Structures are given as C-alpha cells and as structure tokens.
C-alpha cells in the first residue's frame, strides 16, 4: 500500500476499483496466484498482511489486513484487501519487506513445531505482492538469510510495469537454502498454465531440502485408494457420448445437449463460477445480420413464411426486410483444439481423447509451441 501505486481513486492506478466489476491487477494476482496456492493448504485459511501505509501518521511495515486474523479462502483475501480502502489511511513508503518476512518465518517455525508434536508436518508459503523495487535491498537480504532456516518459501509477485530488476536479484541471491521465487505477473497473466508453472517452480525443491537437511522424512500415508480401471473401446451402439464438441460457430457444446463455455477469466474465478456455464436453449426468435452469415440462426416463425394466403400482407410487427443470405460453406473435417500441457515441448507425443467419438489419438506438439499454447487437430 505504498504511495508508488498511485491514487486508488484515479483510473489506471494499480489499486483502482472498477465500477463495472473488472478486477485491478492486485485483485487479478490474488485470484490467479492465490487460487494456485490455495489447493495445497489444509484449512484454506490465510493471514493477510499489508505494508507501506500510514495509520494515524505512523508508517506500518506489517499490519493485519481485514477484520479477522485469518481470511477464509481466496474470496476472504479479496474481501480483506478491499476493506483497507474503507478505512482512513495514507499510502506512503518506503517499501520494506523485512518485517513481513520475519513475521512469516516466525509463524512458520511455530506451526512446524506444533505439527511435530502432533506427529505431522507443516510448511509455509509467503506470497508477497509489490508494484516495484524494495527500498533497502541490504535489509531485505538480511531478512531472507535469517528466514532461510525456517520451513518457508517466499513467492514475490511483481504487479504493474515497474523495473523489477532488484526483485530478480533477490530471486538469484544465494543463501544456504534458496527460498525466494520472483514472478512478473504481467508476463503470465494471460496464460494460467505458465503462471502456475512459474509460481510452483521452486517450491517442491525448497520444501524437500528443508526437511531432508534436518533428517525429517515424509510421514506415513494416511489413506490409500486402489482402483482397478479397465479401459474398453468406444461402442457406437451401447455408449452415449456426453463429451464436449464444437458447433459451426466454434462454441463448445455438450454433444446433443445445451451449449457450454469455459470462463477462465479472473472475474469468473473470483465469482466462484467454477469455470463452467450452461447456455440457455437457442432463441426461437430469428437473428438476421445483412453483412454476415450465421449458420446457427434459428428459422423464423412459420406464421410469416408459410401463410395460407400469401396475398394477405403480414401484420406490421411481423414485416421483415428481405436480405440475400449466402449459401452455407461446404462441410469440412471436424477439428478440435488441444492445449500444450505444462512441460510440453515441440515434438512431444500426447495421447488425447477425440471429443467426437471417444477414441484415443496420438498427436505431436508442433514446432514453435510451448506450455499453454493451443493447436488444432483434424479428426
């Protein structure tokens, strides 16, 4: 909440609240990265801290955000973040991470000690959102070194278009145990696969190194599920294909049922839409556009086109202008799109399921594509 973010009442600043429900970049980072890390948390409760603001004229480098010590899920984090601007504060500076890092390290040590007493294990990830470089790099390095013996990883998310070279320096800064990962949000905010990959890139190694260096081995598996799965070929007579397909407009549809689409926007995730929306049935009202052809447009009501007495003019509210509708394009081979998975590379062979008939296909990732990119497959 430093002054470098700009006045949150002005459009274009990083904390600006959009009246149409669109998320600002801090909110997108909370949703995008928070929803990734949330999956690994056992109770989905998160302490939220702020830094860089003045309360009562006193600069605060680590203060509680929201009315509760722990927010409930990503939605609770968003609510806590937004509540800050409903209270009197002064966005100030300097940008100091050291207090938040020390607080997170202390909490991580305490939670791991309590977990060991219960015969379990605990590991903490500190997510730091910032719009620019830290003011005192030396103080920050000292805080990271002091925290490197804690069961802690630090993910720093750079929000906005500032110079983040100092943040990258902290990522590359070497201690006995590397605990920092820097991610520039703008470089990945339109590709959730790469955002996930970058966020989680170093955490597994950091976690394993911490426990192994202390002779702490993984705990025994609490439960186990063994399922014998037998895969049979698709049978056109006995099997009903309810997988997705594509209509002539390129919309995703459930075969033989209502249409559906995947909402992977940050606004959709924030609203807990779970990504899938069922579309309403096609409208019975015609949709005419003189300049384009719409192959999915409904047929106009028969009361106008099939009148028993063509010489009788239709009612005024049924008169439509005649237009020239081009013939539909010739049918072509059905195609569907495949997204390159994390770790995918050109030349790698993938096994995928044909959404039309359920058969398994082998496809090769084309040259020039990486994780998150899409390519078409004709079948």
Low-pLDDT residue spans: 256-263, 273-311, 314-325
Order of helices and strands: HEEEEEEHEHEHEHEHHEEEHEHEEEE
Strand content: 15-25%
The tally of strands reads 18
Secondary-structure blueprint of this entry?
Layout: H1 25-38, E1 45-46, E2 49-50, E3 53-55, E4 58-60, E5 63-64, E6 71-72, H2 73-83, E7 90-91, H3 98-118, E8 124-130, H4 137-147, E9 152-158, H5 165-172, E10 180-184, H6 192-200, H7 203-213, E11 244-246, E12 252-254, E13 260-262, H8 266-270, E14 276-278, H9 302-305, E15 335-339, E16 349-353, E17 360-364, E18 374-378
Parallel strand pairs: 8-9, 9-10
Antiparallel strand pairs: 1-6, 2-5, 3-4, 3-7, 11-12, 13-14, 15-18, 16-17
How would you characterize this protein structure?
The chain is of the alpha+beta class and 379 residues long. Helix content is 25%, strand content 18%. The chain has nine helices and 18 strands. The protein has helices at residues 25-38, 73-83, 98-118, 137-147, 165-172, 192-200, 203-213, 266-270, 302-305; strands at residues 45-46, 49-50, 53-55, 58-60, 63-64, 71-72, 90-91, 124-130, 152-158, 180-184, 244-246, 252-254, 260-262, 276-278, 335-339, 349-353, 360-364, 374-378. The longest helix is centred in the first third of the chain and has 21 residues, at 98-118. The two termini are 53 Å apart.
């Amino acid at each position: 909440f430093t002054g470098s973010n700009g006045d949150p009442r002005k459009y274009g600043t990083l904390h600006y609240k959009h009246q149409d429900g669109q998320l600002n970049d801090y909110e997108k980072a909370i949703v995008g990265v928070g929803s990734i890390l949330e999956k690994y948390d056992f109770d989905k409760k998160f302490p939220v801290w702020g830094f860089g603001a003045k309360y009562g004229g006193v600069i605060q480098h680590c203060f509680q955000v929201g009315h509760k010590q722990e927010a409930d899920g990503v939605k609770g984090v968003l609510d806590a973040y937004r509540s800050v601007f409903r209270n009197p504060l002064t966005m100030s500076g300097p940008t100091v991470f050291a207090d938040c890092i020390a607080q997170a390290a202390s909490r991580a040590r305490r939670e791991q000690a309590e977990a060991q007493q219960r015969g379990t294990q605990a590991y903490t990830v500190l997510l730091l959102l910032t719009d620019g470089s830290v003011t005192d790099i030396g103080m920050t390095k000292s805080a990271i070194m002091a925290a490197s013996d804690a069961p802690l990883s630090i993910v720093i998310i750079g929000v906005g278009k500032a110079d983040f070279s100092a943040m990258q320096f902290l990522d590359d800064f070497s201690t006995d145990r590397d605990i920092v990962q820097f991610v520039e949000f703008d470089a990945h905010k339109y590709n959730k696969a790469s955002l996930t990959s970058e966020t989680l890139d170093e955490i597994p190694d950091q976690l394993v190194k911490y426990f192994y260096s202390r002779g702490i081995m993984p705990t025994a598996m609490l439960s186990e599920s063994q399922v014998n799965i037998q895969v049979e070929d698709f049978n056109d007579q006995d099997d009903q294909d309810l997988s997705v397909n594509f209509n002539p407009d390129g919309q995703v549809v459930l075969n033989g049922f209502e249409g559906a689409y995947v909402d992977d926007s940050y606004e959709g995730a924030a609203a807990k839409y779970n990504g899938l929306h069922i579309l309403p049935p096609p409208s019975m009202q015609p949709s005419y556009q003189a300049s384009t052809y719409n192959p999915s447009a409904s047929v106009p009501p028969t009361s106008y086109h099939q009148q028993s007495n063509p010489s009788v003019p239709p009612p005024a509210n049924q008169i439509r202008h005649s237009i020239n509708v081009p013939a539909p394009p010739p049918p072509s081979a059905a195609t569907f799109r495949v997204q390159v998975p994390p770790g995918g590379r050109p030349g790698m062979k993938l096994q995928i399921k044909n959404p039309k008939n359920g058969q398994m296909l082998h496809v090769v990732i084309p040259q020039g594509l990486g994780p998150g990119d899409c390519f078409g497959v004709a079948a």
